[in-house]
Amino acid sequence: MVAIVVVNWNGKKVTLECLASLQQLTTPDVRIVLVDNGSSDGSAEAIRETFPGVDVLALASNRRFAGGNNAGIAHALAMGADHVMLLNNDTVVAPDVVARLLDRFTQDPRCGMAAPKIFYADPPDRLWFAGGEISFWTGTMRHTGIREADHGQYDTPREIGYATGCCILTSREVIQRAGVLDESFFMYTEDADWSMRVRAAGYRILYEPRARVWHKLSVSAGGHLSLFKLRNKALSNLRFFARYARWYHWLTFPWLNVLVNGWAGIRYLLKKNEC
User: Fold this and answer.
1) pLDDT tens per residue across span 116-164
2) Cα–Cα distance between 38 and 147 in angstroms, integer?
3) Angle 8-9-15 (CA atoms, 0-180°, nearest 5)?
4) Distance spanning both ends of the chain, measured CA to CA
5) Are 16 and 44 in contact (CB under 8 A)?
6) 49, 211, 235, 263: most buried, per Cβ within 10 A?
C-alpha cells in the first residue's frame, strides 16, 4: 500500500484542488493522509466533508513542514504502508504519477527516493524541477532545468543530488534505516538533509521524468519571491552546509552562499519596487 501525505496550513482552496487531482490516480491501493497543521480557515472540516475517504490528521498547532510530514509518515506506517509519498498541498498530479515513481523502486533495488518531473502550474509546460544538485563549494542548491520550457531535454531517468520535498516517494525500509525529516530546520532544506541521510544509508536518489506534477509555488510562504521565503531559505542553507561540508569547502561556501542569497534578496526588493 502507498500512503500519500499532504500537509496543509490555511490552504483550503489549493488543498482541495490537490486532493481532487489525487482522486484520479490510476494506482490501486493508495491511501491519502491529510495532515492539518492547526489551520484556522476551516480546512479540516471542508476536507472531511468533500473527501470522506481521506484520513484527516488534525494537529493542534502548526508543526511546519517537517513536523507535519513526520506526523503523517508515522500515521502512514501505522496503517501498514509499504511506501510513503510526500506531496505539497499546492500541487496537482498526473494520474499515473505514483505508478511511474514506483517503477524506480521496481527497477533499481538501491532506490531510496524517487522524484518526478515538476512543472510550474502557470505556464504548465515550464519546468520547475528536473533533478536537484548540491554544490558544497558554493554552498548552493539548484533545480536542474528551472524556468526552461520542456522540450524533452530532461527525459532520461538518472541519479540526482537531492529530491525536493514538493514530491518524494520513499519506502518503509528506507524510513526505518535513514529516519524521517529533521524538525530542527525551521523551514526549507529539510528535503536535502533527508536525501543526504538516505544516501548515507546506502540508497540512491533517482529522478523519474515520466512522473509529472504541477506546482503552484510557495502559496503558504507568501509567494515565490517573498522576503519570508528568502530569509528562511538562506538560514536553512547555511545550517545544511555547516552540517555536511568538509573542511576544505569552508574556504569558499560561507562567502559565496552569502553573495548568492544577498543577490536573491536584492532582486526581490527591485522586483517589489517595480510593482
Assistant:
1) 999 999 999 999 999 999 988 777 888 999 999 999 999 999 999 999 9
2) 33
3) 40
4) 48
5) no
6) 211
